[in-house]
Structure formats: C-alpha cells, structure tokens
Amino acid sequence: MLLGTCRVNKLNHLEIGGCDTVELVKEFGTPLYVMDENLIRENCRSFLNSMRSLHENSEVIYAGKAFLTIEMCRIIEEEGLCLDVVSGGELYTAIKAQFPIKRIYFHGNNKSYDELKMAIENGVGRIIVDNFYELELLRDLAKKYPGKKINVLLRLTPGIEAHTHDYIKTGQIDSKFGFGMENGQAMQAVESALSIKGLKLMGFHCHIGSQIFEDEPFKDAAQIMIKFAKDVFDRYGFTTKEIDFGGGFGIKYRETDKPLPVKEYIQTLVTSVKESCKNYGLHVPKLLIEPGRAIIGEAGTTLYTIGAIKNIPGIRKYVSVDGGMSDNIRPALYGAEYSAIVANKANSPKVEKVSIAGKCCESGDMLIWDIDLPKIEPGDILAVFSTGAYHYSMASNYNMLPKPAVVFVKDNTARLVVRRQTYEDLLSAEVYLPQAKKVFLASM
Ligand code: LLP
C-alpha cells in the first residue's frame, strides 16, 4: 500500500519523499516517524480547493490534536488553513509557532478558566463553547476584559454518530460534548450567549465522528444544522454567520479501506447546506470544516528495527519491534489495523505470516496480527503505514521509552523536526531532593 511519495527504489528499499528509508534509519535511528511533506501539502490543498470551489466563503481548519508541532503549524499556515486547538498546551504551541492568532479555533469540553483567559488575552479567533459552565466562565471573563472581542460558536450535538461504516441517527443527547438539540439545551445556550455582554455569537459547530467512510452523515448533519439556524432566526432574529461541521473524513489504513475522495464528502456537504438554506430562505453562512486525520494520517510512516523473533511451532511467530503501544496506542485502544512492509526488502516475495509485537510489558501490546511478510530477520526495518495522525500526538513514555524522533521528508531531503527523547528528557520534570545523589545516565 504505497501512498503519497512512497515508492520502492532499485535497492528494493522503501523510499519516501525521495529518501531511502534505510538511510533515514542510519541517520536518525528507530523508532522513527517519517512525514511525507508533499502529501501533507497536497491534502491541505485538496480540502481548501474543494471547499472554495463550491463556496468561496469557507475555511479549512486543521485539527491539531492529530499531530501538532511548531513546524506543522508553519506548514498549515503556508497552505492557508486555520488551526483547531483543544488545550492550553496546543494553544501555546500555536502561539510559539507565531500562527496567526485570529485563525485559531479553541475547542474542548472542559476548558479551564485559565485556558479561556489565555485564549482571550492572546486574542484567538473563535472559542467553541461546549457547555453552560463555560458560558458562565466567559460571562466573567467578558466583564474582566471589556475591550476584548470574544467571538464564539456553540457546539451542538445533532444526534448523528458516524464511525467508518457504522452510521446511526440517534437523536441522542447522551454525549459529553456540546449542547443537545433534542432537549432544548441548544436553544437555551443561544439565549444565554446572546445575553452576555462582550460575547459575540457567530454561529454553530458540530462534529459527528471520526474515520467516516460515507457522505450520508454529512448530508444529514447539514440539514439538521441549517434547520437549527432557521429556528434560531425565527425565535431571536439572529442570523447565523458561520457553521462548522467538524472533521471525521476517513483515510486508508489497510488495502481494504475505501474512504471517499475528499471532493465527494465536500460536494455532498456543501450541496446539502445550500439546498437547505434555499428551502428555508436563509443566506448560506460561512462554512468551516476541521479535518485532522485526513490531512496528516496517510502522510506518516513509522520505521522500526526488528529485534527478537519468537517462533511457537504450529501456533504463531512473534516478531518484536523496538517500539509499540508507546508510539502507537491505536491497536490497543481501538483494535486498529495497519498495513506494513519490510522496508529493506520492500518487493521481496511474501513467504511467511507473522504477528508484530511491541516491546512494552503487556501481552496486549501487539501492533499487527497475522501479516504476510518476506523472510524476516533481526535488524530488518519494518515500515508501518498511515501512522501520521494520533500517533506522535498520543505517544507516551510508558515503560520509560523515549518518544521517537520526527523527520519531514520532501524532494530527496530529510529534516529533523522533533529530536528523539533522551533518558535525561524522561526525568526532566522530576524534582530532585537536595540530598539526591548525582545520577550517571547511560548514553543512547
Ligand atoms: N473537530 C473536533 C471537534 C474533533 O473532536 C475532532 C476529533 C476533529 C475535528 C478531527 O477529527 P478527524 O478529522 O481527525 O477525524 N484518537 C482517535 C481520534 C479521536 C478524534 C477526536 N476528535 C483515533 O486515533 O482514531
């Protein structure tokens, strides 16, 4: 499954962005996150062009939770996208990257007073208000900062749940996110937001799921949100200026995954919005979407070195890599499945079925069950595809494993964007007692 700039070179090695992965491993070590910069940029353009060609008044907001570094902020800015952050830490990263503050959207179901204060003092573009408690915090902050314009969207739960092929319209209000439409809380939130001096309600937000393979849920979300905008207009004379439909666009993890082309999701969404607006006699508002995974997911490949191989005759061959659930929690957390190849034997015939194990002290630390690979030996390099989204960002130091380095590759050049953690980094936040003995650290 070779996506983006992945190809196999004359040496039978996997190449990404024109860089031989065997050489990348020599230079940067493993585990290593390799990001295909051209594919990231292509994905940004494909979303932005699809949106703007159908509705000029629109923005594509990259969901930073998928993968965020200062360099990523810079690329996103260059490509003309906005940025969605969900914590003080993500906001801090964006500010450090000098990302245009007005193009930042601040999300989260439990923003603290201090995080909101930080957002307001720095002047973020939009705060996406999730609940009544947050409205009260904002009421307070609006008084404290009378000179600041606080532009908000209200996050609503439209009663749609979509994940891959599993799509249901539930009308459900049982979610930790947002104001329920069914039980009247959404309308109550509008009234409250409109009453707070210093708060400027711009419109509404929803996010219906992740890794979605169908366009139908977006169509339904569009109809439900526009109907709500109409109800709000009838009740309060309020004109919705913006609607944000969140992220969720699916990507390919395995050969059998069949996400729709970006254009199709967007076409369905925008067409449905326009039809509904026409039916209700509303102006089409500014349209926003927030893809995370679909921008960065397929652009990432993780390289590992093969170590121990344990064969249990007649049962299974366990092939262990030098990373695992610490750099990819998704198989353990969601039962996620991946495709992989042996990077230094890329096109060699597949001769055995093995299972790829991580090195963490848990039986559940398995990356891939039953994959066909060429004859595999210690020292070989395994490349696991589509590991760009929610891998680096969800990585941990479990078992005190240092987090991998991140390199961006493009046009035959590799750039180190995040260096590998050292053992010293692992202890850097610990507060030593004065009488603690000097510790000699092993070099890596
Ligand atoms: N906007 C909001 C408000 C969100 O909650 C999310 C994701 C996104 C946008 C971006 O969704 P995307 O386009 O990436 O699907 N850790 C999980 C995914 C959690 C997604 C949470 N919210 C995973 O690894 O699959």
Question: What are the SSEs and their pairings?
Answer:
Blueprint: E1 7-8, E2 14-16, E3 19-20, H1 21-28, E4 32-36, H2 37-54, E5 58-63, H3 70-78, E6 82-85, H4 88-96, E7 104-106, H5 113-122, E8 126-129, H6 132-144, E9 150-157, E10 160-164, E11 166-169, E12 179-180, H7 185-195, E13 199-205, E14 209-212, H8 216-236, E15 242-244, H9 262-280, E16 286-289, H10 293-296, E17 300-312, E18 316-321, H11 330-334, E19 340-342, E20 352-357, E21 366-373, E22 381-384, E23 405-410, E24 413-418, H12 423-426
Parallel strand pairs: 4-23, 5-6, 5-16, 6-7, 7-8, 8-9, 9-12, 9-13, 10-14, 13-15, 15-16, 18-20
Antiparallel strand pairs: 1-2, 2-3, 4-17, 10-11, 17-18, 17-22, 19-22, 20-21, 23-24
Helix pairs in contact: 2-9, 5-6, 8-9
The structure holds ligand LLP.
Ligand LLP is lined by residues 63, 65-66, 84, 107, 207, 210-211, 246-249, 290-294, 330, 389-390.
Short description:
The chain contains 12 helices and 24 strands.
Low-confidence stretches: none
CATH architecture of the largest domain: Alpha-Beta Barrel
* Count of individual domains: 2
User: Strand portion, in percent?
Assistant: 25-35%
CATH fold-level assignment of the largest domain: TIM Barrel
Shape: globular
Structural class category: alpha/beta
CATH superfamily of the largest domain: Alanine racemase
Beta-strand segment tally: 24
Tell me roughly what share of residues is in helical segments.
25-40%
SS field, number of helical segments: 12
The pLDDT mean sits at: 95
Alpha-carbon distance between the termini? Answer: 33 Å
Which hetero ligands occur in this complex?
ligand LLP
Described by strand count, sense and barrel closure, the largest sheet is: 9 strands, mixed
